[in-house]
Amino acid sequence: MLFIGSAWGATSIDVTVDYGTIMGNNKFSVGFMMDYEWSTFSASSAQRQLAKDGNFKLVRLFSVRIEPCTSWYESSRTGAFNWASVDLLVQRIFETGAEPLICFGKFGTAGGPLEVPRGMAKNPATRLPYPDSYAAYCTEWVKHFKAVGLPVRYYEIVNEPYFYFGWDTYETILIGNFVKFFNTVARSMRSVNSAVLLSNDAFLQKKFLNYFVNYGDNLDFIDFHKYGLGEEGGTDAYAFSQAKTQRFIETSSWYSVDQARQIWNNQRGKVLPVIITESNLSYAWVDGSDSRIQQMAGAVYIALVLREAVLRGLSCHLYYVFSSSPSSQRSSKGFGMVNSDNNQPWYPYYVQKWLGTSLSVGDQLATITSYSSTISGLAWTHGQKLYFLLICEVSQAMTVYFHGLKGMLNFSRIDNTISWQTPKVQTGAIDSSQPLNINGYTVALFQAQASAPPPSSSPFEDSFESRNFGKWTGTSTTTGETATVVTTKPYQGSYSARFTSNGGANEEFAYCYRSVNMGEVYVRGYFNISSGLPLIDNGDRFYLLRLVGSQNLVYAGIRRDGGVDRWVVYVRNGANWMGWTSAATPLPQKGKWVCVELHWKMSSTAGIVELYIDGAKIITVTGINTTSYGNATRVDFGLVYANGVQNSLTIYADSAAINNTYISP
């Protein structure tokens, strides 16, 4: 229940919405997957209208469900195809405003065979189809869509291949088999249409990525699957925690999304977009699906996942699945967000529709701060309208006090006051100056009219006195490295950030980052390199500051050259790196606080990079092209990248600031 007025006994929560502080631009859209229910969607105008109304942008399909190949002839590597159902479905997906993603092949069980067209042989040595044969099959899809004028771009080569090579395996023979298989298929498809976008959902698995980044063909996006619970079940609270952390933080077997992007970018020089290609509260199916999927717990879970996806710069989230029929299930409702018996949405549909229709790619993301871990939010501007999403993930009374808002707010909300079996969106208006009472699980979208467009960016400062990285968009670390806020060595106040590495002599990083959208950036920080200097070998280096656009733009840090540690910048001129530009003086010192400020300006002919140490300009690079990868959309702060450093590094950082003008010490 959600209403105005203070509730007796309710926990009070303060929420501040600041549309003047922009975190960056949105890259995210909603989407969904269709499994067995694809034919119902293709035949149902009501379901297609729901998809259109939700402004879903990407729809994933299994090739084995919509299989057009009636027979495959292994000797000639050709097949007989009936494309009628596939073409109709793809056309109708495009008509809703979305585009399809075709996933070729899937394993039915762990260690089982890959599902393939009738007549296709498998190599007994690898237990996979012969690569040239499967490549010819997949390429037939690309040829066909090109011939009939259907602009299908997105493809995955095999669903969940860890069913073949294992989840926590440390062997590489099976991974090597699969990577050779993937490469053959990818190259064949690209030979017909160079615009296809290819990926595979095992990318975050450590052993797979470590192998693939060295031996695999190019990828066009990262994708992965995200379910809060499995067959063993679990509490709502555990599922909500998984929504916010699973695949967003590193585990023993899986890289985080940020780590995987960084590893690929470091080795391949490209920042890949990220898509969650399957997601739901639970993947349990043996005894029927989890009944909470269609309830408010399922809606809260999806809202939390979508919030994380937006804030982390992901491109899309595909809900598994669009619809399901309760009457055809054993004791559950299936996985759908729409009841296909009556074509009525369940609660998770509305959460995705709200973001699909009010949040567009390029919209500015504003700052929203909740002073409770049980209430979270997401704020943005869309045209002249201001929006924010509020999520309550506990089943108890809360009283929310808004700050930074004026006037009336229109709202749409879902909660447990109306049964999930007959779900309905509740709408109304509230005065932002009044306390707001929430009773239990709630997802609500608020909207107000903006008097003027917000600025593109605002000054940012953080001296870490909040005792955490709450002012930043997030943190990222490799295994063995840490990013913490401590009282050990502050520059001012009582707290500072500490970034450490274990000296593995490989690629290491530990940093916090903030989303921005700026054509000219000054970023400043005070740094104390407590351990790790001097570096040992020429070419050893680590960086303290980095700006990122669609790819990395510029680094500032320390590199050993000619037996001397020097301050350096590493910047692009056009699409290519210039090499290191270093300063003769001053030289970096261990154990001393120093003010480091990096300036970068975007221009096709008059790009600028400057480095200031303690207020003195020591490096200037001018007259370069800094437009190839667009505005700076992220600022990285801390130990943003180390390479070849054999010493363990301990770096304290304080008084961070970001602005579009010189900041000064």
What is the element layout, followed by pairings?
Layout (H helix, E strand, L loop, with lengths): L1 E3 L6 E15 L3 E6 L3 H6 L1 H9 L4 E5 L6 E5 L4 E4 L2 H12 L3 E8 L15 E2 L4 E2 L1 H18 L5 E6 L2 H4 L7 H20 L4 E3 L6 H10 L6 E8 L6 H10 L11 H12 L5 E9 L13 H16 L4 E5 L2 E2 L13 E2 L4 E2 L1 H12 L5 E7 L4 E8 L2 E8 L4 E7 L4 E8 L10 E6 L4 E4 L2 E8 L10 E3 L11 E4 L4 E5 L9 E5 L7 E11 L1 E12 L9 E8 L3 E10 L2 E10 L2 E7 L10 E9 L5 E7 L2 E9 L7 E12 L6 E10 L6
Parallel strand pairs: 2-21, 3-4, 3-14, 4-7, 7-10, 10-11, 12-13, 13-14, 15-16
Antiparallel strand pairs: 1-24, 2-18, 5-6, 8-9, 16-17, 18-19, 19-20, 20-25, 21-24, 22-23, 22-25, 26-40, 27-30, 28-29, 29-40, 30-39, 31-36, 31-40, 32-33, 32-39, 33-34, 34-35, 36-37, 37-38
Helix pairs in contact: 4-6, 6-7, 8-10, 10-11
What key phrases describe this protein's structure?
665 residues, alpha+beta, Immunoglobulin-like, TIM Barrel, Jelly Rolls, ten-stranded mixed β-sheet, eight-stranded parallel β-sheet, 40 strands, globular
Describe the structure.
This protein is an alpha+beta fold. The protein folds into three domains: 2-22 and 365-449, Immunoglobulin-like, CATH 2.60.40; 23-359, Glycosidases (TIM Barrel, Alpha-Beta Barrel), CATH 3.20.20; 460-659, Jelly Rolls, CATH 2.60.120.200. 19% of the residues lie in helices and 40% in strands. It is built from eleven helices and 40 strands. The strands form seven sheets. Strands 1-24-21-2-18-19-20-25-22-23 form a ten-stranded mixed sheet, with helices on one face. An eight-stranded parallel sheet has the order 11-10-7-4-3-14-13-12. Strands 26, 28, 29, 31, 36, 37, 38 and 40 form an eight-stranded antiparallel sheet that branches. A hairpin with a 3-residue loop joins strand 32 (541-548) and strand 33. The two termini are 50 Å apart. The model is unreliable at 451-457 (pLDDT under 50).
